[in-house]
Amino acid sequence: MQSRARVGIVIAAAVLVCGIAPRSHAQTPAGEIAVAFHVTLAPSWFDPSTAPPQITPFGVMYAIHDALVRPLPGQKMGPSLAESWTESRDGLTYEFKLRRGLTFHNGDPVTADDVRFSFERYQGAGARELRARVRQVDVVDPLTVRFQLNQPWPDFMTFYGTTATAAGIVLPRKYFEQVGADGFKQRPVGAGPYRFVSQRPGIDIVFEAFPAYWRHAPYVKRLTMKSVPDGTTRLAMLRSGETDLAYFLDGPEAQTLKGDPRYGLVATRHASIFWIEFPEQWDQRSPWHDRRLRLAVNYALDRKATSEAACLAFCPPAGVIVPRVMDFALQAQAPPYDPQRARQLLADAGYPNGLDAGDFTPIPGFATVGEAAMTNLNTVGIRVRMRQLERAAFYAAWQERKLHGLFMVAVGNSGNAASRVEAFVQSKGAYAHGGYPDIDELFLQQARERDPARREALLHRIQQLTIDRVMYAPIMDLRGLIGIGPRVADHTINAIPMYPFPSHEDMRLK
User: Fold this and answer.
1) CA-CA 20 to 30 A from 189: which of 35, 107, 257, 276?
2) Where are the domains of the chain?
3) Per-residue three-class SS string for 73-119
């Protein structure tokens, strides 16, 4: 192996600076905290191998699982199961050293073989890109694993060590092979801060603190996650004390908490954004092949009013589908709200009396945003009808290209502009319905470019082309509104950069 940059030394220093504690058993976990999710919790999320390019499953996965490297308090990407890693000078080799003495919840040791096994079976977001670029994974010894790339790839750690994908999460190979994929979803075992106790699919999941977690034992002994898709019900459960955190409240529900000293209301700062997809824009037989119609949708959206209604004006209007907090994001202005121009574009495209546009399918969990977009479209003459799906079904239909007409997404994974382009913009992306050869070529160029300034220029060019060609209708960056109950002393929302859920082991009760 060639001489390597001393990344491990830098990482060790970062651990000290950010105050990530070593394993400690000084405080015994106590008490119980319950959180209400805005979507139905799917057992499939226990297996990170098929995780979609969405942030929501990580709110479950990072309770029970851990990764070699992942977002941690105060760090976009920090060492977790791995105490350090190094990168060779030529950018072709990454070597990770695991912490000594780590175990999964069933007592099995965490080894480099588990790391290789987990990576090789990964089939989720970014899997195509990872398989194309990682030549081989070698187990050097029980605590050392080495990744060999085909060519330098400056985004390897972005794809492997952030929520851009779940490829870095480590599963217990021996246990998984004993119970199989279906058995694992019924009784998962991980190496995270909480171990699985029970589940009622679609209702709730119960976890218990794992005292041997490497950072420290969780402060709260029992963690219950509840599926509560209805926002009014989430609010009522928070007020009754049945839950302690209510995730992603809509504006009307969140408004009732403002000014009430018994409750907190926190706006997340994660890398999430809403946009409308035009999946049929590459079909010459479809009306959506006409750029003017796609532009009409953009002018029809009253982004400011939607932000005020859905998130109390915390959500900034968006002009591109890469969140402004990401590295290499193009800071683009949102299109103005101009319904008159939208109607004129419809007429210019041959629809002076409007267009019957069929289904409009918004991602579940954000009723106010979806209803506002539908109302805006209908107002200018783009007549749509609401189609509703459960969250896991929505993800599956999106990836399988089964959503037609118009649909609205919200994507909250971290990473950077390149990971967003990989999944949604370039033609081979797992969630792309089409693409353009010049964008694909620019994507390949930036993936090889190790100079940050030149990479940024290439990624800005890609994002500008999506605007020029009206590939999407961006709505707004999402700032989720989280209701905090009176028993919570430290909710840890926003403790982890660009991540909307708590640092589970750090949550405290009064």
Assistant:
1) 35
2) 4-221+481-509, 273-477
3) CCEEEEECCEEEEEEECCCCEEEEEECCCCECCCCCECCHHHHHHHH
